[in-house]
Design brief:
CATH superfamily of the largest domain: Lactate dehydrogenase/glycoside hydrolase, family 4, C-terminal
Catalytic activity: (S)-malate + NAD(+) = oxaloacetate + NADH + H(+)
Bound molecules: nicotinamide-adenine-dinucleotide, (2S)-2-hydroxybutanedioic acid
Number of domains: 2
CATH architecture of the largest domain: Alpha-Beta Complex
Radius of gyration: 19 Å
Keywords: NAD, Oxidoreductase, Tricarboxylic acid cycle
Enzyme class: oxidoreductase
Protein name: Malate dehydrogenase
Function: Catalyzes the reversible oxidation of malate to oxaloacetate.
Length: 328
């Protein structure tokens, strides 16, 4: 017997990430080849955006996806998030050349207050929420704080693109296949201060750190490359990453819903106070997922270099958080 459909809301559905994301959700790549989905697509009420969304929906129809059990267009979060099971909050302004993601805070913060309130009012109580719109960690914090009747653990931010970027750089450096590398994680904020950490990483049981054996490469090449990859893409494309961002969103939700079989992935989740990160700060951590829940990987040793990096990314997040307190 086929499963009952689940409701998936995507905001910013007519944007560039939306265009790379919706077809993959409807084809089953996010929630599995046996899981029908109903897409509730949110855009700004503006006529041009709604018209563009209508065009994307025509294309979705034209794919005749067997798993697409229904779809609707929305200009109001209160209808878009009604009874939703999975919410992907993508809609927000992207940065341009020369900007940092935190420069978007004032433009985007209000969006996440309104959407958090709408989720609080009308979403399924088990809704799994992923914030992609930048600055993703602080926007997720705003949405979580605006939804006091939903469990805080339902709100996450996307660190998976950084995680995947780190995996690819490590694969290139070691000459190993991406899929063979395990136990990489990215700590902190989705920003250049993020700390991509391969101290625990292994390939076929062998330590990646021992294979690389070059602290200068870590500090001077690996961390800046991963940390500034978003800016490098904006510089090259004139637009921010879209297909790789959509891919990371699919990976994040897929793993959260269907599990990681013990493998580590990185998610921005509300801290429970572990590793000295203040409670409820949305911070990138190593997690495993099983049974529809994520579990923090606990008790990892933190050396002096790592502590310094974690402190730096935390300080930036605390500053962003302080800047939005007036909205909460
Ligand atoms: P885009 O400009 O192409 O699309 C954004 C869409 O969101 C637009 O169609 C816009 O009309 C819509 N939108 C704006 N406000 C909205 C609202 N209140 N409700 C619903 N829709 C709204 O941008 P994009 O390239 O798709 O990027 C979207 C966001 O994702 C940006 O903030 C970008 O910086 C961020 N991003 C995050 C990551 C990450 O790893 N976390 C990666 C890439 C991009
Ligand atoms: C990315 O990392 O590619 C996105 O966050 C877009 C950006 O502004 O860098």
């Amino acid at each position: 017997m086929s499963k009952a459909p689940v409701r998936v809301t995507v905001s910013g559905a007519a944007g560039q990430i939306g265009y790379a994301l919706l077809f993959r959700i409807a084809s089953g790549q996010m929630l599995g080849a046996d899981q029908p989905v109903i897409l509730q697509l949110l855009e700004i009420p503006d006529e041009k955006a709604q018209k563009a969304l209508g065009g994307v929906m025509m294309e979705l129809e034209d794919c005749a996806f067997p798993l697409l059990a229904g779809m609707s267009a929305h200009g109001d979060p209160m209808t878009a998030f009604k009874d939703v099971d999975y919410a992907l909050l993508v809609g927000a302004r992207p940065r341009g050349p020369g900007m940092e993601r935190r420069d978007l805070l004032s433009a985007n913060a209000q969006i996440f207050t309104a959407q958090g309130k709408a989720l609080n009012a009308v979403a399924n109580r088990t809704v799994k929420t992923l914030v992609v719109g930048n600055p993703a960690n602080t926007n997720a914090y705003i949405a979580m704080k605006s939804a006091p009747d939903l469990p805080a653990k339902n709100f996450t931010a996307m660190l998976r693109l950084d995680h995947n970027r780190a995996l690819s750089q490590l694969a290139a450096k070691t000459g190993k296949a991406v899929g063979e590398i395990e136990k990489v994680c990215v700590w902190g904020n989705h920003s250049p201060t993020m700390y991509a950490d391969y101290r625990f990483a292994t390939v076929g049981g062998q330590s990646v750190k021992d294979m690389i054996h070059d602290d200068a490469w870590n500090r001077d090449v690996f961390l800046p490359t991963v940390g500034k990859r978003g800016a490098a893409i904006i510089e090259a494309r004139g637009l921010s990453s879209a297909a790789s961002a959509a891919n990371a969103a699919i990976d994040h939700m897929h793993d959260w819903a269907l599990g990681t079989n013990g493998k580590w992935v990185s998610m921005g989740i509300p801290s429970d106070g572990s590793y000295g990160i203040p409670e409820q700060t949305i911070f990138g951590f190593p997690v495993t997922c099983a049974g529809g829940e994520y579990q923090l990987v606990r008790d990892l040793p933190i050396d002096a270099f790592s502590q310094e990096r974690i402190n730096k990314t935390l300080a930036e997040l605390e500053e962003e958080k302080a800047g939005v307190q007036h909205l909460l």
